Amino acid sequence: MLQRPASTLSLRQIIDDYLIDADPHVLTAHDRLERPVIWVHSSEIYEIGPLLSGGELLLTTGLGLAGLDAGTRRHYVRELAERGVVALAFEIGRSFDSVPDEIIREGSARRLPIVELRRVVPFITMCRTSNTAIVSAELADLRLRGELDTTLHDDMASGGGVAKMLEHVSDAAHCPIVLVGTGGALIAAHGVDDDRSAWRAVDGQIASAPIIARGREIARLIAGPGATPIPGERAAMLLDCAAGPLTSALVRGGIGRSAVASRLIEELLASRPIRRADLFARLSGSGAPVSQSTQIVPVVVESPDSRMAESALSRAAATLGGVVFETVDATVYGLVVMPTPTGDHDAVDCVRTAFTDIGAHASRVTVVVGQPCATADAGPGPGLSLSIGDSLRTCAERLGSAVESVQTKSVAGRVFTARALAVDAAASTMSAAARDELIDLIDPLVRHDAASSTHLAHTLEVHLRNGCSATRSAQALHIGRQSLYQRLDRVREVLGFDPTDPEMYASILLAFSALRADGAGTRTPN
Fold first, then answer.
1. Per the database record, which ranges form the PucR C-terminal helix-turn-helix domain (predicted)?
2. Is the four-CA dihedral 225, 231, 232, 238 of positive or negative sign?
3. What CA–CA distance (Å, rounded) separates 159 from 87?
């Protein structure tokens, strides 16, 4: 079968415009007149079926059917239908005075339009005019595709962005164009009045094309019905032409990296107010699908090489949704854009788990996951952007505590949440007297470790952070449970009380945060 051109004339157009002089009358399958015709062919050969590729309008005088029985004629029609022929135009007046009944009945049964031509017109005339029009339509499509391709590449070179590209696709197709993320989020649209009309265009779509990056579909480009009907094949052709340039625009410079994303992160860190609609457009233009039911989770990542941090962030976010990020002073600031989680997990847990799951790819990066900002709760003003900026800066401020925790091995793992580090932030703002009082609770352990090269303070903090579970604590410390019990007994002896008592639990954990805030780490014995 030959590949069907992107846009061709319909059978109805051919009949009305190019067979009209032959006085055509449609006898069967009146509901099949909108099928596209790729070529108009004439033949009197009975066994013409195998020589056709499908999509043709076949003209015949029936000369090859004269003298054949009814069953053989039905087989002729059946073979044409099975081959994918669009219609059979049967001229009467030469071989037959009327179209044989068996041909009409078989055409009706096979839903093959049978068109009776009641006036003799040279077939060569009808074939030439019809096929010239078909080829002209194909050439017009090729010119249109070429012009759109050039325009879209100009948009990319000039930094016009996704919005400008969708405008040009919509102008070429004369219909609304909508870009939807794989998670169902509305990324961008042109030719619609609002989000509601954009979704109506999606529901009534006439064609669509996937936006694929690195083997994964990241969005879908959709053409909706326009005021002037456009063939679905032509719309599909234009969407296919636009898919490549749009993919490049969405993921320019790598996933999450684009000039739009870089500028957005910088403005958020600088507390520059951005209206919700503009924020949505800039996130979407950076390749991060966003909608009214999206969670935006700020993340700050640090590693010996910023490229390592960027790679870890991209890998972790790939399982969640879109991500935009920028490296500022060797620290990677990112926004993970994801659907609101269902069940017992919240967005922070999902992002933290995603970083943990990439394993070795995050073995040398330190991550702080901030508080999520829900788009559903945002008003039309700049409130959402200011909240995101605050959360980003909070992550950056607490990154120091996270790095110190990794260096002192006070916790297992390298992925932290800003809410878990809030206690360290609180400890740094308390009065010196309150901080000293808390540090005094664990000071005997700190002095003992400094004098005897033991790790009692570290053991106690790890045990408390693991909920006093002997199994989890021993695993985190890489020691046996019996060794853990021995260390805890020694801790009680040095302190003179049981620091794992529920009444002391909170104070002891806060004491370790106060010790880090004090900048002591270890204390020199008197």
1. 456-513
2. negative
3. 49
Question: Quick one: which of 457, 300, 317 has its CA closest to 365?
Answer: 300
Confidence at 255, pLDDT banded by 50, 70, 90 = very low
Q: What is the DSSP letter of 348?
A: H
Gap between the Cα atoms of 255 and 322, Å rounded? 9
Structure tokens belonging to residue 331: 């620290």
State how far the alpha carbon of 135 is from the alpha carbons of 3, 89, 130, 151, 259, in Å. 14, 20, 9, 24, 43
- Structure confidence at residue 1 (pLDDT): 34
Residue 411: closest CA among 276, 265, 509, 297 = 509
Find the mean pLDDT for residues 180-206. 78
Secondary structure letter of residue 144 according to DSSP = H
Q: What's the start-to-end Cα distance of the chain, in Å?
A: 92
Distance CA 266, CA 292 (A): 24
The answer to whether the CB of 188 falls within 8 A of the CB of 179 is yes
Q: Tens digit of pLDDT for each residue in 407-425?
A: 666 555 788 999 888 888 7
Q: Cα–Cα distance between 245 and 289 in angstroms, integer? A: 18
The residue with greater pLDDT, 107 or 153, is 107
Residue 4: pLDDT band (50, 70, 90) is very low
Mean pLDDT (the chain) is 84
Q: Length of the chain in residues, anyone?
A: 526
- Asked whether 269 and 164 are in contact (CB, 8 A), the reply is no
The per-residue pLDDT for range 80-110, each reduced to its tens digit, is 999 999 999 999 988 899 999 999 999 999 9
Residue with tokens 């059917």: 65
Q: Is 282 left (phi over 0), alpha (psi -120 to 50) or beta?
A: alpha
What is the CB-side half-sphere exposure of residue 167 using CA atoms within 13 A? 6
Name the residue type at position 257: R
- pLDDT on residue 253: 38
- Helix orientation angle between 383-408 and 276-285, rounded to the nearest 10 degrees: 60
CA torsion through residues 267, 268, 269, 272, sign: positive
| Exposed/middle/buried for residue 106 (C-beta within 10 Å: 0-12, 13-18, 19+) | buried
Question: Whose CA is closest to 39, among 80, 78, 2, 82?
Answer: 2
CB 271 within 8 A of CB 386: yes
Backbone angles phi, psi at 363, to 5 degrees: -70, -20
Q: Tokens at residue 456, please? A: 């009692």
Q: Which of 4, 10, 127 is nearest to 59 (CA)?
A: 127
What pLDDT is attached to residue 214? Answer: 60
346, two tokens: 């919240």
Quickly state the pLDDT bin for 245 (edges 50, 70, 90): confident
pLDDT of residue 274: 87
Answer whether 0.70 is exceeded by the pTM: no
Report the alpha-carbon angle 68-74-79, nearest 5: 110
Q: What is the DSSP string of 101-134?
A: HHHHHHHHHTT--EEEE-S---HHHHHHHHHHHH
CA distance 30 to 26: 7
